Amino acid sequence: MQKIKFINKTQATFFTSLRTRVDEYFQQKNLPKSGGNSLIIKAIIMLSLYFVPYFFVLFGGYSTLINVCLLVLMGIGIAGTGMGVMHDAIHGTFSEKKWVNKLFGGSIYFLGGNAYNWEMQHNTLHHTYTNILDMDEDITGKFMLRLNVAAKKKFFHRFQHIYAFFLYSLMTVSFLWKDFKEIGLFNQLAKDGIMKPFSRRELTILIATKLLYVVFIFVVPMVLMDISFGQWILGFLIMHCVAGLILSTIFQLAHVVEGAIQPIPDENGCVENAWAVHQLKTTSNFFGENKLFSWYIGGLDFQIEHHLFPKISHIYYRDLSKIVADTAKEFGLYYNSKGGFFPALGSHINMLKQLGVS
Is the pTM of this model over 0.90? Predict the structure, then answer.
């Protein structure tokens, strides 16, 4: 794969001006750029939504219906932990202390994922090469889905707006095998100088943490509960499908919507935008007035601010959004905001339809 270059230097003044204004915001208010104590409280709540129902399922002896409700709650906890705890921590914005970020970033192991893989795939590839086919895995190589105009179109894609959300629900289930598949991808990208190869140390951590997760989510329930393997599978899928549907939908509403461009690099791997303008043009917000919803999803309804400032905690995105929108307007750049979850969801479905037929 060839290296991608962002070459429009005339656009560089946009981010220089924006970064100055954002820095002034933090200086005037004397604020740290990390989440601080508010994220510790959120972490306790989100991790409790996951672990407390887990122990109730193991030891409560409840009816099937109550256990199903507890598994749904665990799925909500997985998604909340992923968006509001792990995501900030692996970006390094959960705390000013590296060891705290590493500790809470490690929560991904109990969700079935891997911290190093997430950092490489999300922080490095997705945040650098947003919406570029073969570089951004969020829109590349998805089973039965065409999420980019440069991807090959197949006959069944015309129906993808119907079945897409079922596939989205399998996102966290796919962690079980996808993290191993990433080894080959990272090593291939390393040959082209895009990233480091997958080290033996990371492979050891990957295997060890997957085994830990299998013990936590499979061995312990099967030993302590009087259930069949089929019952375990059903419970596992209920939990993960709830989590996967929430996570995937929130992520897709940021980039696969109307107005978010999908640039195709030229034969030299060049994209005719400065990096910051590329982030602005490939990303969309969907924040509304519901602050509780925004809190739960880790501020990911402010994806423009997150992509421009991934080293700033999500607790500041609502305040920063006015600065970003005003600066974009000043430079004649489109600030893509859908105004709420449901308008963004409708826009995403429209994009699925368009990408399925054109």
Answer: yes
